[in-house]
Amino acid sequence: MPLGTGEFEEAWPRIVRALASFTGSLDDAEEYAAEAVARAAAHERSGGRPIESYAAWCTSVAKRAWLDDARRRSVERRLAPDIVGALTRPEAEHAAMDTDLPPHGPDGLDGLDDRLALLFVACDEAISPASRMVLALRVVCGLTIPEIAGHLGVQETAAAARLTRAKRALAEARGSFHVPEPVERERRLPVVIACVAGMFTVAHRTVLDPADALADTGRQALSIADALVAVHPDDTEVRGLRAVIRLGLARRPGRVDDTGTGLALDEVDRSRWDRDLIRAGLDDATLAARGDGRFAIEAAIAGLHSSATSFERTDWPRIVALYGALEDRWPSPSVRVARLVATAQSLLVADPVRGDPGARAPADITSIGEALDVVERQLALLERDAPAYASRDASLALADLEWRTGRRGQAAARYRDLAEVMAAEPLRRFCLRRAGVTPP
């Protein structure tokens, strides 16, 4: 029968982990797993016998392919007879045919979910931090090279080169695949958390309305976060990560209208939000608040957005302060853009032009206008100098600022330009709508 919803996400890490243990190489494991999955699809298209367990079937096929290639290489390179003999011993042949997989998930022999096991392997200290992220996002999280490059703000060629270097460095440093012991995993945990966060960030930016479970990278990130919480239930950063993911997914239904067009934050229908998921996310955020790390702060920000009954009733000054604290701990261009956006929202909500004209004195009006000018200048600098992902965010923020302060012509021109570079269709349609262009 065809691969069902959710089966592929479960099968893939099991296959890769089993093959990495068998071949001793994470690189080979990924390559032969992909080949086996392709063979499974071809087997079904040709009307072959139904596959009962994709993980077991693909692992068996991949092991045979790896042994066949190893034998061929041995003959071609005329390796020593004992190595050739090792590859052709009956026990090796039996291992290749064995479709029993090691236990996985919380009940596995090492108590570690397969995806987490692979993440901890990929985040080896022998690999540079930048290359670790690329390896983990590609092999475990399943992101494409263009998605990884966009997330990290680098060229695709640079991301591909980092992936190659990471695999080579891992093979040279460790020799063969092995899952690190708990003490090692504890040291690697911050990078693992960042990788899962990166996976969700890409989903949040590009997959606003996933077509099915296989395309729902955000839900897959939540599943990995759940596995992390199972192993580290009291870690404030782990709980903060899951809070951010839960609260982001809870608000996702309101981000797109019935025509598939993205909505601005002040246009969102908050009645569509998933209240159960919000409550669960707020529980995580409450526990995370015991810490003061990056994800504890991000969870607090997400909590304020999720708790607000309307755009105007959002506690923008508090969000601005939290973004300032986040910028101190994690000085990313994207965080700076987000802080400036929140600052602009705070000023615009207080602007008497948008509210009660008698609410403030003229001096206050002048100070608000001056503050908005400062925000706009800083966003323009980020639009010019920041990495592509942050530059695009700054452009969107500038367009929104022009739109909301009555400069609709300038805003429309900027939105037309943005529509040309938006990869996510809902965001492209949003930009076209504000530009006054009817989406095709």
From TrEMBL:
Which segments constitute the RNA polymerase sigma factor 70 region 4 type domain? 127-170
* Entry similarity comment: Belongs to the sigma-70 factor family. ECF subfamily.
Q: Which PANTHER family match?
A: BLL0085 PROTEIN (PTHR47756:SF1), BLL6612 PROTEIN-RELATED (PTHR47756)
InterPro entries listed in its UniProt record: DUF6596, RNA_pol_sigma70_r4_t2, RNA_pol_sigma_r2, RNA_pol_sigma_r3/r4-like, WH-like_DNA-bd_sf
DUF6596 domain: residues covered: 188-285
Keywords recorded for this protein, A-Z:
Sigma factor, Transcription, Transcription regulation
Q: Name one Pfam family in it.
A: DUF6596
**Segment forming the signal sequence:** none
Protein name per the record: RNA polymerase sigma factor
Q: Does the keyword Transcription apply?
A: yes
Organism, by scientific name, is Terrabacter tumescens
